Amino acid sequence: MARENVADILCVGTQKAGTSWLHTMCNIHPKTYSFPNRRPITSTNKEAHFFDWNPYKGVDWYRELLTPGGPDKLSMDFTPEYSLLTRGHIKLCRSLSPSAKVFYILRDPVARAVSALRMHYLWQESAEDSVVEILFDDKFLKIFQEARIMNFSGYVAAASLWREFYPNMHILNYEDTLSDPKKFILDVWGKIGLEWAELDDEKEDLFGKKLVTKVWETKKYFVAPQVYDYLNTVLRPHKEYSEREFGLKFAELG
């Protein structure tokens, strides 16, 4: 019998908001399924990138990639760039995974931007951490554009598009992963239909270890005050709009 969804669990972002950690924690549960790592076509076993990198491969490729070995397994695609998809792509996603559980983790736009910038500087630098500085200069402005900081900060616009097709999409606050990570994960599992009682002793032990493990932590490169000033100025409207629309409070940076 054909599966109802290609992806049973979707996490569409945002980038640098704990999506890799959430995937790691969900992957511990015996009822979930992560597709095989086909890097560089996919990004590890977490991000299929079908709708942005790989649409030319066709729906059958995506379906084959995400089909688990057992009929009761729930397939996962956690691609943060999906938050930037067009309406047409999201409509296609809905046709392929009509009853998927969809999650969107939001983070203080400035804190997220700093983390993303550090990631992009890491990709370009080979020097020791102590000598890499993010200064307000032409290089910063170039990387700011390359990292699509403004695009990734448009939480309300992205959520509005996704909710046209998935009205029950779950909006999560990254800061809850810091204040009470176990509650955060168990709440997500509850929304998916995963039960703690289904874990054996080995999985429980792994859960405890991974719960406090950073995944893809960025280098703590120095960020100049002028950069923070710029980010606060250009991202404040997105922050305030998101807090108002979603009933959240971003307090990561005070």
Structure commentary:
The N and C termini lie far apart (52 Å). This protein has a single domain (9-246), classed as P-loop containing nucleotide triphosphate hydrolases (Rossmann fold, 3-Layer(aba) Sandwich), CATH 3.40.50.300. A five-stranded parallel β-sheet has the order 2-3-1-4-6. A two-stranded parallel ribbon has the order 5-7. The chain has helices at residues 19-28, 59-66, 87-96, 109-124, 138-146, 149-152, 155-165, 175-179, 181-192, 201-211, 225-246; strands at residues 9-11, 32-33, 74-78, 101-106, 133-134, 170-173, 222-223. The protein is an alpha/beta fold and 254 residues long. Helices cover 46% and strands 9% of the residues. The chain is globular, with a radius of gyration of 18 Å. The chain has eleven helices and seven strands. Keywords: Glycoprotein, Transferase. Residues 8-188 form the Sulfotransferase domain. Pfam families: Sulfotransfer_1. One of its GO terms (molecular function) is sulfotransferase activity.
The figure for the number of domains is 1
Computed over alpha carbons, the radius of gyration is 18 Å
Secondary structure category: alpha/beta
Basic shape: globular
Q: Quick check: average pLDDT?
A: 96
Strand content: 5-15%
At the first level of CATH, what is the class?
Alpha Beta
Structure annotation, total helices: 11
At the fourth level of CATH, the homologous superfamily is P-loop containing nucleotide triphosphate hydrolases
Q: Regions with pLDDT < 50 over 5+ consecutive residues? A: none
CATH architecture: 3-Layer(aba) Sandwich
CATH topology: Rossmann fold
- The run of helices and strands is EHEHEHEHEHHHEHHHEH
Q: How many DSSP-defined strands? A: 7
N-end to C-end Cα span: 52 Å
Cross-sheet strand order for the largest sheet: 2-3-1-4-6
Amount of helix: 40-55%
Biggest beta sheet summary: 5 strands, parallel
